[in-house]
Write a structure and sequence with these properties.
Layout lengths: L23 H34 L21 H6 L21 E7 L1 H18 L4 E7 L1 H14 L4 E7 H8 L18 H4 L6 E5 L3 E3 L3 H6 L10 E5 L23 E9 H6 L2 H16 L6 H11 L4 E4 L5 E2 L18 E3 L13 H12 L19 H11 L8 H6 L6 E2 L16 E8 L5 H8 L4 E7 L1 H12 L2 H4 L4 E7 L7 H10 L5 E4 L4 E3 L3 H11 L7 E5 L1 E3 L11 H10 L3 E2 L14 H6 L4 E3 L8 E5 L15 H11 L3 E4 L5 E3 L6 H8 L1 H22 L4 H9 L1
Parallel strand pairs: 1-2, 1-4, 2-3, 6-8, 9-10, 12-13, 12-15, 13-14, 17-22, 18-23
Antiparallel strand pairs: 4-7, 5-10, 6-7, 11-14, 15-21, 16-23, 17-21, 18-19, 20-22
Protein name: LARG1 glucuronyltransferase
Membrane topology: Single-pass type II membrane protein
Keywords: Glycoprotein, Glycosyltransferase, Golgi apparatus, Membrane, Multifunctional enzyme, Signal-anchor, Transferase, Transmembrane, Transmembrane helix
Length: about 725
């Protein structure tokens, strides 16, 4: 249980022990980190208990023991509290800080745009969810890309007591586009300025976070700081920990005006209701217009404008203790913000170098960040006991479907998988696609797991068109994939490949769910339904685009068959033409696909006819037929009941036939299956009798469903099955 305050073991710390990255030394570091994380969790638990006791005893017990002090200021609520010496670290003065109500919702706003920022947000959210004990409401100011990615992610993550609202960042561009900005965050780096207008008018307060933030404590502690605001204080900020605003970093360095060292806007507490009454919108606009007359542009986006406003109106700021924003850019004073791991609350990777930044303790910080980066997000789907969650239709439907299953059924796990909601992160890497003007474009669709990663470069070399891939990975494997892709010149040079991560859950490989995810997110009118172990012939992409026109695929229900072959050789001189392929077939270097183990799967393609064919020819459906086909994007999905090995493609081809698709073999197209070790699922199929029994049961149920759906025409499938 996460909710009872007990220490939690971080499973990713123990993953991949044999990987080169996990040397004995770094493994010890990670184990040490886990121990320290446990200590922090335990300390937090004790402090929460002390807090409730202190609240119960009333004002006479407000003064705690001040065990730690810092040279940097630690909150400027008033001078008296400074004289009292507010405690730092996780021992911050319990009595003076009012507790956050048990089920009080904490509001968090984040500006997020693009593919990379969407990945960063996930790590930030994981760190917040890991420590939180309150309901959360995330307000995401997102562009169209980030909204598509994060809406799907949160919808499939299904974390209790978390609400997500999106605000269109593109609609806000006109509010800030008049401000020239040199910062790498671009126009989106200015959007925190307009949150008073953007967020709901009845929202009184919000914590605003950059995407490159990692939490090391419960965000409720930061939310509680709002109670310390006094007078006209409406902004909670940490002092900037670099010398930027002092103007002495280089000759002729001329920063925007700021109060002393200035403030960093990676973590902001905003009292929205008071800011609106103060006419914040008018205040920052007038200041920006005035300063831009001499400064010409911002260097640090919204931070420059916030600081210029504060310079004129210092009473607006409540200065947060610096451990609420430990800034890990080069040449900062961040090391003065902490003495021990228990002092850390928020880490801010506010350097373009991110994890490669220079800091004495950067290795520790990096390990903390990697812990959340690779942490299994499924473990964060925990209920907040005692806090009623808002009714979620998807969650309720899922529970209803699962409750209707018989847990004593020997095939229960197979049936359950059909309803499992897998957390899905679309477009994990940058994606760009320019639609073809002639409307003939074809996307190659495939799915894979970590053990087939090596096929990606070869496929990209054989197929220059768009590709949509669903990858079945754990959180840690997703990061390994990211490093692999970023280290590959071939993959990094291709922007028309959509990588969609479906996170691991359950004991089966959800092959048809993966195919459906990859199919659903194509940007072309046609798709080539392939498998990751196949290399398409050179030039297949252009050949298929011509075939689409020739065979009028736009106006007819056709499935164009690309004949499949295989080699048993790991090193293959790939045939450059059909003539060369036929020669290799005659020599025994190549074979028709699965001819020696599953002839029925591709026999209807009629390879004998294909050898001499010069024009496309039609073939009829037969039992167990499972060719690789090109279809329109509106073709039916794969049936999710089939998982792992067996009948996953056969059922789909049967459905195409039931919907009266014509199967047409392309005479000058081919694909070749490359050898690999047997998958875990085929091994289970061969060795587990119950697996085979359940697959047979699912086949029969699928055929019955076909009969009910397609009526008399579907009877041939039952007959064909009985005769085969």
């Amino acid at each position: 249980s996460f909710s009872d305050g007990k220490p939690v073991s971080l499973s990713p710390l123990e993953s991949q022990p044999h990987s080169p990255r996990y040397t004995a030394s770094s493994q010890r570091d990670r184990e040490s980190l886990e121990v320290r994380m446990r200590e922090v969790e335990e300390e937090n638990r004790v402090l929460r208990k002390q807090l409730s006791l202190a609240q119960g005893r009333g004002p006479s017990h407000h003064r705690g023991n001040h065990s730690k002090t810092y040279s940097m200021e630690e909150g400027t609520g008033d001078s008296e509290s400074l004289r009292a010496g507010i405690v730092a670290g996780n021992s911050s003065e319990c009595g003076q800080q009012p507790a956050v109500e048990k089920c009080e919702t904490i509001h968090v706003a984040i500006v997020c745009a693009g593919y990379n920022a969407s990945r960063d947000v996930v790590t930030l959210v994981k760190s917040v969810l890991f420590h939180r004990r309150n309901p959360l409401h995330f307000h995401l100011i997102a562009d169209a890309i980030a909204k598509q990615i994060l809406a799907t992610l949160f919808q499939t993550w299904m974390v209790p007591a978390v609400r997500i609202d999106f605000y269109d960042a593109d609609e806000l561009k006109s509010e800030v586009s008049w401000i020239p900005n040199k910062h790498y965050s671009g126009i989106y780096g200015l959007m925190k300025l307009v949150l008073t207008k953007t967020l709901p008018s009845n929202l009184e307060r919000v914590i605003v976070l950059d995407t490159d933030i990692t939490f090391a404590t419960d965000i409720a502690e930061l939310w509680a700081v709002f109670h310390k605001f006094k007078g006209q204080q409406v902004l909670g900020l940490v002092e900037n920990q670099s010398d930027w605003y002092l103007g002495n970093l280089w000759k002729n360095h001329r920063p925007w005006p700021a109060l002393g060292r200035g403030y960093n806007t990676g973590v902001i507490l905003l009292l929205l209701d008071k800011l609106r009454k103060m006419k914040w919108e008018q205040m920052w606009r007038l200041t920006a217009e005035r300063e831009l007359m001499s400064m010409l542009s911002t260097s640090l986006a919204d931070q420059d404008i916030f600081n210029a406003v504060i310079k004129q109106n210092p009473f607006l700021v409540y200065q947060l203790p610096c451990f609420w924003n430990v800034q890990l850019s080069d040449h900062t004073r961040s090391e003065q913000c902490y003495r021990d791991v228990s002092d850390l609350k928020v880490i801010h990777w506010n350097s373009p170098k991110k994890l490669r930044v220079k800091n004495k303790h950067v290795e520790f910080f990096r390990n903390l960040y990697l812990t959340f980066l690779e942490y299994d997000g499924n473990l964060l789907r925990r209920e907040l006991f005692g806090c009623p969650s808002e009714a979620d239709v998807n969650s309720e439907n899922l529970q209803k479907q699962l409750s209707e299953l018989d847990e004593d059924d020997l095939c229960y796990e197979f049936r359950r998988e059909r309803f499992t909601v897998h957390r899905t992160h679309l477009y994990f890497l940058h994606y760009e696609y320019e639609p073809a003007s002639d409307n003939t474009d074809v996307t190659l669709v495939a799915q894979l797991s970590m053990d087939r990663l090596q096929m990606l470069e070869a496929i990209c070399k054989h197929w220059e068109g768009p590709i949509s891939l669903a990858l079945y990975l754990s959180d840690a494997e997703a990061q390994q994939f990211l490093r692999y892709a970023q280290g590959s010149e071939v993959l990094m040079s291709r922007h028309n490949v959509g990588y969609h991560i479906v996170y691991k859950e359950g004991q089966f490989y959800p092959v048809n769910l993966l195919r459906n995810v990859a199919m659903k997110h194509i940007s072309t009118p046609y798709m080539f339904l392939s498998d990751i172990d196949f290399l398409p012939m050179y030039g297949l992409y252009e050949y298929l685009r011509k075939s689409v026109i020739q065979l009028d695929l736009a106006n007819t229900k056709k499935a164009l068959i690309v004949p499949a072959f295989e080699t048993l050789r790991y090193r293959l001189s790939f045939p450059k033409s059909k003539a060369e392929l036929l020669s290799m077939l005659d020599m025994g270097t190549l074979f028709t696909f699965r001819y020696h183990v599953w002839t029925k799967g591709h026999a209807p393609t009629n390879f004998a006819k294909w050898r001499t064919a010069t024009t496309p020819y039609r073939v009829e459906w037969e039992a167990d037929f499972e060719p690789y086909v090109v279809v329109r994007k509106d073709c039916p999905e794969y049936d999710r009941r089939f998982v792992g090995f067996g009948w996953n493609k056969v059922a789909h081809i049967m459905e195409l036939d039931a919907q009266e698709y014509e199967f047409t073999v392309l005479p000058n197209a081919y694909m070749i299956h490359m050898p690999h070790a047997p998958s875990f699922d085929i091994t289970k199929f061969r060795s587990n009798k119950q697996y085979r029994i359940c697959l047979k049961t699912l086949k029969e149920e699928f055929q019955q469903d076909m009969s009910r759906h397609y009526g008399f025409a579907a009877l041939k499938y039952l007959t064909a099955e009985n005769n085969s």
